[in-house]
Design brief:
By secondary structure, this protein is of the alpha+beta class. The chain has 4 domains: 45 residues; 45 residues; 150 residues, Ribonuclease H-like superfamily/Ribonuclease H (Nucleotidyltransferase, domain 5, 2-Layer Sandwich); 82 residues, no CATH class. The chain is 34% helix and 18% strand. It is built from 12 helices and 11 strands. The protein has a 5-stranded mixed sheet, with helices on both faces. Helix 8 links the parallel strand 4 and strand 5. Helix 1 runs antiparallel to helix 2 and helix 2 packs across helix 3.
Length: 382
């Protein structure tokens, strides 16, 4: 009715094409098209011809049934985005919105809850290597198997540099993750972590005691890397969201690959999941370049380890964790009785005894002497 009125004013010469289009809120070309339809078919020609007709691009019933069957039988525990990526492997090339709407219409997934109030995210660091996040997540990664996943990732890009499963998170796993990053990329500027006991000694009020460093803090101080504590899960939002993504994808990928043991899961992480995750979710840094500095020191493993001071006994032995470590004969001294020495415990459980910068002896996990003092961790990193 509105168009009919404006068309009458246009035909009487009171409105030009441009003025009529402006009054109707459409473009001039649209007005020309509507005018032709009006002149040919009258008011009925203005109706949208698509009303009541199915779209020519609408998915067929067979395609919808096949998609729902795949979700129900094979991909039942995947989230919508993860499932949508898998559909390409089965020749279903539809958009994400179609996948989501179809699953919701079939009652397979629930609609997301309305988001809360807007919160401003902390800006990313501009360069890789300026700040890394490290955290652990205990989860049932395979049926009946609860492991800790230790992840070390970059703040600037969300790229995962190190990820592996361990039975329990602690000092050894933290140092292993740091070692893997430095051995591959070099020294970084800072590490952002929670206030776990292997990172910080905390007071009753929950504040960190920076005057009483942990083994991780001592090692990072030696390397010149700043350790930064987080005081809430929200402060670690970037790593928390990464773990949310991993928990929503990795257990399903392990199930599809038929993996149930930790050793195979760690191989799958390194060879398949982490490279694909970085390809899919890595962000481009704000600036070109890197803040990583190549490691130019000597033995990195002798920094990233547990170091404890001991006094040598009268029998030239050192006691450490219910193990007796015998210091062998040394051409530099007859004995080290009453001397202060330093015991290094490496993440793989091997031990070594140092007097100042000199390594006096090396031992395996059980305290048995090793003739050739080679640190296993350095061989793995290399």
């Amino acid at each position: 009715m509105r168009f009919n009125e404006i068309m009458g004013r246009h035909q009487s010469g009171r409105l030009s094409c441009e003025e009529a289009a402006d009054v109707l809120g459409i473009s001039v070309s649209s007005f020309y098209r509507w005018r032709r339809r009006f002149e040919t078919k009258g008011v009925e020609g203005l109706a949208d011809g698509r009303i009541g007709k199915a779209s020519g691009r609408r998915a067929g019933v067979d395609e919808v049934v096949r998609m729902l069957e795949l979700y129900e039988t094979r991909y039942f525990d995947l989230n919508v985005a993860h499932f949508h990526e898998k559909l390409a492997d089965h020749g279903i090339a539809r958009g994400y919105t179609w996948t989501k709407n179809t699953l919701q219409a079939a009652g397979k997934v629930a609609k997301a809850k309305k988001r809360g109030a807007h919160r401003r995210r902390r800006p990313r660091k501009p360069l890789p290597g300026m700040m890394l996040h490290q955290d652990g997540s205990r989860h049932e990664w395979t049926p009946g198997q609860w492991w800790d996943l230790i992840v070390t990732m970059d703040d600037a890009t969300s790229e995962i540099y190190s990820a592996f499963f361990v039975a329990e998170e602690g000092t050894a796993s933290s140092m292993r993750g740091i070692h893997e990053v430095i051995a591959r990329f070099g020294l970084f500027c800072s590490l952002y972590t929670d206030r776990g006991s292997h990172y910080w000694v905390t007071t009753e009020a929950g504040k960190v005691d920076k005057d009483n460093p942990t083994q991780v803090k001592r090692a990072l101080d030696q390397l010149g890397i700043e350790l930064i504590p987080a005081y809430s899960p929200e402060a670690r939002g970037r790593s928390e969201r990464t773990f949310g993504t991993i928990q929503g994808r990795l257990p399903q990928e392990l199930r599809l690959a038929g993996i149930t043991d930790m050793e195979a899961a760690n191989r799958f992480l390194a060879d398949v999941f982490i490279p694909e995750s970085n390809r899919r979710f890595r962000e481009k840094p704000a600036e070109e370049g890197t803040a990583f500095v190549p490691w130019a020191g000597t033995n990195l493993a002798d920094i990233l380890c547990i170091q404890e001071e001991r006094t040598v006994g009268n029998d030239n032995t050192v006691r450490y964790l219910n193990r007796i470590l015998q210091i062998p004969a040394d051409r530099h001294r007859h004995h080290y009785v009453k001397s202060k020495v330093r015991v290094h415990e490496y993440p793989d459980g091997a031990l070594a005894v140092f007097h100042g910068p000199r390594r006096l002896a090396s031992f395996d996990v059980g305290g048995v002497p090793i003739a050739d003092p080679v640190v296993v961790l350095d061989q793995v990193a290399a």
